[in-house]
Amino acid sequence: MESGWRVEPENVDLDQWLADRGEPPLSARMPVLGYGSNANPSKVTWLRDELGLAGPAVVLRAKCEGIAAVWAAGRRKRDGQRPATLAALPGHTEEHAVWFATPEQLRVLDRCEGRGLRYRLVRVHTGRITLQNGAVVDSVLAYTGSSRARMPVLFNGRMVLCSSLDQARTRHLGDRAASTDGLEVTEVHGDPSADDWPELLFVYGTLKPGASAWHLMEPHVTGSFEEVRLPGTLHDTGLGYPALRPGRGPGVPGFVLRLRSPEDALPLLDEYEGADYRRVRVVLPGGRVAWTYLWTSPVGDMPVLPDGWVH
Q1: Which of 213, 188, 74 is nearest to 124 (CA)?
Q2: Between 39 and 128, where is the model more confident?
Q3: Same domain for 88 and 207?
Q4: In the chain, is it the N or the C terminus that has fewer CB atoms within a 10 Å radius of its CB?
């Protein structure tokens, strides 16, 4: 298995590490921004003890540009502390975390955050979130304020960064709430799917524009597409379609397409690709993340196609 993500110090591929524990792979998990207490490793222990969080927590550090964790206007009833909330802050950079959560783990986070009461689950389109390996997580899921008490508090007319003031010193901030958090978001209704993210798909064989199966692909594509060379090696299976293996190699030329509705298109493409391929998320040159299909069987002495699939 090759997810393109490594677990240290074992130096094991993340999907293999998860499979060894009987857990869902990265492709079955959703990226959720963790800020405030949700970026603290001790929060995982609390969620396990108090809300029954199960399975490994896949949490990666992330550089967040243009957004910030700020103190909210209200306080939590259970302990009287002031919670964090998310806000737009152009020109500002902070380090937070991105959870790759299973659907069951996301439901635990929903209960923790009081989804629909205190916070709402949204896709954030403001700022830029970059993981340590250079992957850019666009339209990340996040919990943002849905009530006045979870809007940013204003002190002397300004929002207050959590990083600039500790919890003990927030009591003097008062309860004046900002009218908006300034974020551009799309609210999520119902249960999101791991297939919702990302919207991009890298194709390199029969699904390429003009190739033999393009007629299956075309109805699901929106906008223009661009040529990209993905790190890895492309082999000729001799069966009328190529085999992609990631990692070192001459590179694999192909196209990046944007899907109208990934959750509708991907199950159909999974069926078309069949058991010899596995859908994974890969990091494109420049940091964008896209789905693609990797060959899962041995390549043996299959010829290498340095110039890509031209059939």
Answers
A1: 188
A2: 128
A3: no
A4: C
